[in-house]
Amino acid sequence: MNSLTPFPERAPDAVMFQRAELNEILSLYGRMVAAGEWRDYGISALRDAAVFSIFRRAAEQPLYRIEKRPKLRARQGQYQVIGMDGQILKRGHELRTVLRVLERKLIRAVE
């Protein structure tokens, strides 16, 4: 940690979400917060994955995790949505397509 910066530097080989990816995720997150479904989130940059965790309450385990795993890009796709029980709900090559599994829950919440 550099003494001039208040935040620890991330590991150079950590996976991160790009700005466009975060915009997609945060757009959905904002709509779900407005619907009263979600209340908190956390972002992790790990060596092999970037993880966006979604919580109903901060003290709970995440309802959903949106993961980016670049090593899976050539196989089933680098993006995946994982439920609270660890089940993969959707995976694919395009983030917007993968996030649709959560947007369906927004439609049900509004009805």
From TrEMBL:
InterPro entries hit by this protein: DUF2794
Protein name: DUF2794 domain-containing protein
